[in-house]
Amino acid sequence: MNSAQIEIQLIASLVAIACAIPGTFLVLRKMALITDAISHSILPGIVIGFFITHDLSSPLLILLATASGVLTVVLVEFIQKTGLVKEDTAIGLVFPALFSIGIILISKNASDVHLDIDAVLLGELAFAPFDRITVGTTDLGPKSLWIIGSILITTLLLLIAFFKELKVSTFDKGLAASLGFSPAIIHYGLMTVSSVTTVGAFDAVGAILVIALMIAPAATAYLLTQDLKKMLLLATLFGITGAILGYWSAHLLDASISGSITTVLGIVFLLVYLFAKNKGLISVLYRQKQQQKEVLLLTFLLHLHNHSDEEEERKVAHLNDHINWQKVKSRTVLSLALKNNMITIDNQIIALTDKGKTFTEEAINYIITNKDTEIEKMKDRFFLFRG
Amino acid sequence: MELKEYFEFLISDYTLRTISIGTAVLGAICGMLGSFAVLRKQSLLGDAISHAALPGIAIAFLIIESKNSVVFLIGALLSGLLGTFWIRGIVNKTHLKSDTALGLILSTFFGFGMLLLTYIQKIPNANQAGLESYLFGQAATLVESDVWLMSGVTGISFIILLLFWKELKILLFDPDFTKTIGFNTKFLDILITSFIVVAIVLGLQTVGVVLMSAMLLAPAAAARQWTNKLSTMVIVAAIFGALSGVIGTGISASSNNLSTGPIIVIVAAIFVLFSFVFSPGRGLLFREIRFRKNRRDLQLHKTLSFMYHIAKDHANISHPHAIKILNNFQGFTRKTLKQLEDKNYISLDGNMWQMTPTGYEKAATLYDQISKSDE
């Protein structure tokens, strides 16, 4: 590993952390798509700034681009307030228009702008180490490292200073307002931080990776925890993992670094989405299936209980004929009931055991008093084997 | 270039004609299907789908190793649909909200697509040039067969739309009711979503991945302002879409260095802006005018009723009073007094005013009328 490689990974990781922090709050506030809008619509700001300064990392350019990001948010909110279209339509109308203006500006002045549209979308992380700050003869490191580093430190300071306010206003706007934190200030503060981060990261990693770095780690973390602090930590961790793994897979494939970081983030999300312990797809599907089987079991036990003096209704074959259950279904329900010692089968006639009787009676009691949730706790007490 | 000259040129020039027809057809189908997307609150789904289509195109290229629009379309369609259903899976099966799901799929699919594109650029194969045109679109690459394909798909989706019009309409406005009366909502949902995906995929070559969502939204959002009727909205949206296509193509053809996609989007955005401001029913301008007119009427009535309270203490209701005594009532000007005189409610004489019998009666029954018209 040479120093350029280390620097690239360092920049990518810092960008990942700087994005994960506002990203977490945006995801929690259901405003994830505003990053999509901001990352596209800062383009005209960047182009105009570039005309003036001819330097992609000058402070004026960053200021202009941030302003055009905040302008997007204001425009979107203005259109929403008129009530002419829905919220998401407002976002979808504003950013393509601004982005188009940016592209037209670039292509109109292609001869004097060394701004490549590909670079806008993808960034040029690989070239980041070549643009260095030097004072006299001492080399202070890559420019983007300084930019993103200072953005990250500001973001962290703001996060620590306003953590409580952010937390309250994210989860309970009304409470925040009544406690005296202005929701508007926090909202626009968060929007400004997101815009600044987007602009700072844009130069290094491009528009699309910014969106991915803001949303994907936060979404992945949200599947794993419900605790804000843990979520912030996990999101940061996923961001860094994506950055470093992404860098090395790009190295291997000899392809775009930001594209491959995004892909890694997507894969990490997919894995968590499938395998997360409680919220993952597999465990959700498994739980749904289990619930279904247990409901069937309960119905079956209730049926037995109702007909405890009619042998005809309690024959095994009856399940197929009268309750209209398929063979497989009735067999799984029967075996589940047997395993849990709820029933005995004697000569093809099913009878409730004492345990089955108590279970059923308690269940009936909860159902008629409308305390269906209690049944879940009851299942824990009675069941030896779950469905 | 004169407009007339341009039209002559349009008819005589094969390339320009093909591109204009292509963008017009594209605008029409996008407007038509976009209406459904906008009304179903799926505006940004278009954005996500168009980005999600990119890896499909790249993979299609990796498989056939040459450029072929139809194969690309199929690849884009498959990956767009995969993205759509994954978004749905995330929203249905986890507690993540739709905005997070959309942003996530949009960025990760697009990033993966870009990864593949940059990878493709490195493999030694002369055919890969021009794949980037799918990012921002290049209307100039449209050929006649593309236009035929677009028209065919537009025709089919139009017929399907007509066939399922009633079902789609009811699904749009009341999904629960649709389900209760026995329609297969899942099928209808997939039907309309698939057609939206098809429309997006068709537009990728012309306006590109990044700007495609605007193509879908803008004509529909503009049309929404002019009508409250679904059928009118779909037709108006199609017209707006087609017009933005033709005008955008015209502008970009008449000037150097202007790519067609962004221009079409800007033209469509101007349509939206115009509709937002000038539509008679919902537009901001007429809303403001209505608002001011109401306020002025209210002021007028207030002045009249103030005068009425002064006049009713006198035996002769038309007894003249100095305008001065109205001074502690804010809300009248010379102009409003003149208006009242025009309506024959009062008569002015120098610095004096007096109520006419009509005005007196009007003022006496003013609040009765208001309460009556409220009923």
UniProtKB/TrEMBL annotation, chain A:
Q: Name one GO biological process term.
A: response to zinc ion
How is this protein positioned relative to the membrane? Multi-pass membrane protein
Primary site of residence: membrane
Bilayer-crossing residues are: 6-28, 33-52, 58-78, 90-107, 145-163, 175-198, 204-224, 231-250, 256-276
Can you say where in the cell this protein is located? Cell membrane
Per UniProt, the keywords (alphabetical) are:
Cell membrane, Membrane, Transmembrane, Transmembrane helix, Transport
InterPro entries linked to this entry: ABC_BtuC-like, ABC_TroCD
* A GO term from the CC aspect: ATP-binding cassette (ABC) transporter complex
Family membership, please give it: Belongs to the ABC-3 integral membrane protein family.
> Mind telling me which PANTHER family this protein's record contains?
ABC-TRANSPORTER METAL-BINDING PROTEIN, METAL TRANSPORT SYSTEM MEMBRANE PROTEIN CT_070-RELATED
- Know the name of this protein? Manganese/zinc/iron transport system permease protein
**What is the source species?**
Aquimarina brevivitae
Automatic annotation (TrEMBL), chain B:
Q: What SUPFAM superfamilies does the record tag this protein with?
A: ABC transporter involved in vitamin B12 uptake, BtuC
Task: Tell me which UniProt keywords the record has, alphabetically.
Answer: Cell membrane, Membrane, Transmembrane, Transmembrane helix, Transport
Q: Report the source organism.
A: Aquimarina brevivitae
Q: Which family does it belong to?
A: Belongs to the ABC-3 integral membrane protein family.
- What is a single cellular component term in the Gene Ontology annotation? ATP-binding cassette (ABC) transporter complex
Show the taxonomic lineage: Bacteria, Pseudomonadati, Bacteroidota, Flavobacteriia, Flavobacteriales
Topology in membrane: Multi-pass membrane protein
**Matching InterPro entries:** ABC_BtuC-like, ABC_TroCD
Q: What is its main location?
A: membrane
Q: What is this protein called?
A: Manganese/zinc/iron transport system permease protein
One of the GO biological process terms: cellular response to iron ion
